[in-house]
Write a structure and sequence with these properties.
Strand content: 15-25%
Distance between the termini: 11 Å
Helix content: 10-25%
Number of strands: 12
Largest sheet: 8 strands, mixed
CATH topology: Rossmann fold
Order of helices and strands: HHEEHEEEHEHEEEEHHEE
Length: 339
């Protein structure tokens, strides 16, 4: 589908990347009754989750059919709830995990369909702000990565968060960044695809862990509309320049990030929330919309002894088959990811 044929502000992101075409084959083996993701799991490291209707039905005991609530971790306040639930009452980004999750794997037929609907997800509550400012913030994310790889056996890890390299390059901050890098190296060696946000809607520098070469760095795009018709997409750049020239080398793929409908969370109705249409921009919202399809193909094509090659294949697929985006780049052409 070309940009000129995309109409309507709701769902422009999924139409642009052709997500429906990507997950349609997953319905074939079940005669259209459910999505068959095989053994693929997404580790979602963020602020946690709430029991939102956008994720389908919830049992009286807080269980979900595809959100594996007992497989994740609460690294912030486990004394409140050992499950990674988000209380929506503290930190800079309460409800962020739910909003991003709704874009990634939400599924409420007739109202809401995410990029990878009903994908098996292991949620983590590792941050209260997706700007990783302190060494402890960074360290918790590293611990969550290790758990997602070694204990929850995730195929993909999504992190819509990041640490700006120039906050404090010394001491505890530097040690924490090294710990985060070690965790990403471990995921790479085990064939787990780590996708993280470039952070270009906030900083003019690539953020960690997206900046690590063994991660997939996803930059954010914003749309331009002519009435209800999508006329163009461009790099999301509230600051000028959007990104310093040398940091374009870290970008592997570009994906829609701004002006996306998401689930809305509020502290007054945090359980079994109704589906709500939400259009707008929030700081640090970097929905990544490409991981599931890439991981499924990688897992099927490669043998366990060469697991790390999955990440190389994922990167190459995104760059080769994405829609070309004219922007500076050091590692070849970058495109808008498509299913």
């Amino acid at each position: 589908m070309t940009i000129a044929r995309i109409r309507g502000k709701k769902g422009w992101n999924t139409k642009l990347i052709k997500s429906a075409q990507a997950w349609a084959p997953l319905l074939e083996d079940t005669a259209g009754d459910d999505f068959d993701y095989g053994d693929v799991r997404i580790g979602h490291i963020d602020t946690g989750y709430v029991e939102h209707a956008v994720f389908g039905s919830w049992s009286d005991t807080g269980q979900s059919e595809h959100i594996l609530v007992d497989s994740g971790m609460n690294l912030i306040d486990p004394e409140r709830d050992p499950r990674p639930t988000d209380p929506i009452d503290g930190g800079l980004n309460p409800g962020h995990g739910t909003r991003i999750g709704s874009v990634m794997y939400g599924f409420a037929p007739g109202d809401w369909v995410g990029v990878a609907p009903r994908a098996p997800v292991v949620p983590y509550r590792a941050v209260t702000s997706v700007a990783l400012i302190t060494p402890s913030d960074i360290s918790r994310v590293a611990d969550a990565i290790h758990h997602a790889v070694d204990s929850s056996f995730c195929s993909v890890i999504n992190m819509s968060l990041g640490a700006r390299p120039t906050i404090n390059p010394w001491g505890a901050f530097r040690r924490a960044i090294k710990k985060l890098g070690t965790a990403c190296d471990h995921a790479y060696n085990e064939g787990v695809i780590v996708v993280a946000a470039l952070g270009n809607n906030v900083h003019d520098r690539a953020t960690y862990p997206a900046k690590f070469w063994r991660s997939i760095c996803a930059g954010g795009l914003e749309p331009e509309f002519d009435g209800d018709k999508l006329s163009d997409v461009e790099i999301w750049k509230p600051q000028d320049p959007a990104l310093i020239g040398s940091d374009y080398q870290f970008v592997d793929i570009w994906a829609p990030a701004d002006m996306i409908f998401r689930a809305k969370t509020q502290s007054t109705d945090r359980q079994r929330l109704p589906v709500r249409r939400y259009l707008g921009t929030r700081r640090h919202d970097f929905p990544r919309q490409d991981t599931e399809t890439h991981a499924r193909h990688c897992a099927a094509a490669l043998q366990p002894r060469t697991r790390w090659r999955r990440i190389i294949l994922c990167r190459r697929v995104g760059q080769r088959h994405g829609r070309h985006l004219a922007c500076p780049a050091r590692r070849g052409n970058r495109g808008t990811v498509q299913g």
